[in-house]
Amino acid sequence: MNAKEAIDTLVTSYQSSPICHQNFGGNLERNGSQASFVTHSLVITKQSFVNMYPNLGYHWLRLAIYRFDANVRWGHFLLFMAIGGFPYFVEDIKEILNGHYGVAAFVVGSTFSSIPYLLIISLVPGAITCSLVGLRKSFEHFAYFTSLLFACMLLVKSLMMIITSIVPNFLMGIIIGAGIQGRMMLNGGFFRLLNDIPKLFWRYPMHYISFQKYVNQGFFKNEFKGLMFPDQTGGSPAIGVEEILRSYWQVEMDYSKWVDLAILLGMLVVHRLMVLGLIKVVEKMKPLVKNLRAKSLKRSKLVVKNLSTPK
């Protein structure tokens, strides 16, 4: 049997099959309905959660690195290494732009699906650090410490999603994300105190929009506020740590540590809304850019054709 006979046999078999008569034997009936936003969000949450679990590079490898570095690092290392999720954000953005699911559902689903993993990453190194370093071990102080880490991990993930929306290139995205992270660390008030930061641009507004500022101050207030130490200069019998934090470390002691955490959560909401807006803009601009490229390519081919045509 040659190829033509084989094809004819397949066509004849299909035309006489029940499936062919079922598909073309009558009018199509539409019994389905459009999935709701909640359904989209739940499906994406489950899909992202399942995809993250077997993927060693997404969270588990970072957890192992944080575990072994917990005795010599602290929150800065955890936050800086959070840029490791950038390659997976690129794949998610591609799926959105290809129309697989909506932008809002993706933002909600990606947020909830990563919460269990980021909680583990915050709790395990946080517990090791508190034990080895000798931080205050009451439940309130430990809960606040891990809550700060958790909020910061979500913030950095949102930051990398913003960068992914603008720069989908893997290498450029990693470089830009690391640069922004490093700049926020330098402006956070730990490596350079507030009075040493130049006022123009670096202090106003960069210092106050850097989430590292609120992380550092929250850590200081959580660990030292309320403690008293003996005065080594021969003055008063004891000196409050609050005065040291205010005068030496230039920590803003006028508001509670919970305000710092609330500011971080507010910044998280703003970052997520920025992700939503940027992806919407990219989604609208993609067909326009595609049309412009097609017109430019067509114009170039026409010019080449005119040049190659003999006169």
TrEMBL record:
Transmembrane segments: 72-90, 115-135, 142-164, 258-279
Pfam families in the record: ABC2_membrane
Membrane topology listed for this record: Multi-pass membrane protein
Broad class of the protein's primary localization: membrane
The keyword Transport is assigned to this record: yes
Any single biological process term in GO: transmembrane transport
UniProt keyword Membrane present: yes
Cell compartment(s), UniProt: Membrane
Record keywords, A-Z: Membrane, Transmembrane, Transmembrane helix, Transport
CC terms in the record's Gene Ontology section: plasma membrane
InterPro entries assigned to the protein according to its UniProt record, in alphabetical order: ABC2_TM, Plant_ABCG
Domain ABC-2 type transporter transmembrane: 94-224
Family classification: Belongs to the ABC transporter superfamily. ABCG family. Eye pigment precursor importer (TC 3.A.1.204) subfamily.
PANTHER family found in the cross-reference section: ABC TRANSPORTER G FAMILY MEMBER 11, OS09G0472100 PROTEIN
Name of the molecule in the record: ABC-2 type transporter transmembrane domain-containing protein
Biological source species: Eucalyptus grandis
